[in-house]
Design a protein that fits this description.
The chain is mainly beta and 126 residues long. 0% of the residues lie in helices and 50% in strands. The chain has no helices and 11 strands. Strand 7 (68-73) and strand 8 (78-83) form a beta hairpin.
Length: 126
């Protein structure tokens, strides 16, 4: 049974940085495409970033491109989301997700991911 556990959320001022961590257990990280999604109160879950397991390529939502960086450490079975230049509109619960059979054209679709963490709150104050 694959389990994902996020950590690293918190309260930060506008322009600040946070690094989210997603620890994977129960299987090897190499078997999965790893994504980050977020959900603000009253809004739908939104794609943030993904790291494709097949070609080792990251892909970002336009709203975070140039500010966020997704990376993976296979030796530690861990995925990171480095978030810089944070804005109040980045405030949300951030979720880590893993998918074993995800093709490039569907990587932003949350329904394609079979495993999810419990989420970690990120709050950016203005």
């Amino acid at each position: 049974q694959v389990q994902l556990e996020e950590s690293g959320g918190g309260l930060v001022q506008t322009g600040g940085s946070l690094r989210l961590t997603c620890k994977v257990s129960g299987d090897t990280l190499r078997a999965y495409t790893m994504g980050w999604f977020r959900q603000a109160p009253g809004k739908e879950r939104q794609f943030v970033a993904v790291h494709n397991r097949n070609n080792n390529t990251p892909y970002y939502a336009d709203s975070v491109k140039g500010r966020f960086t997704i990376s993976r450490d296979s030796a530690r079975n861990t995925v990171y989301l480095q978030m810089d230049s944070l804005r109040p509109e980045d405030t949300a619960v951030y979720y880590c997700a893993a998918g074993a059979r995800i093709i490039w054209s569907t990587m932003t679709d949350s329904g394609r991911y079979g495993y999810w963490g419990q989420g970690t709150q990120v709050t950016v104050s203005s």
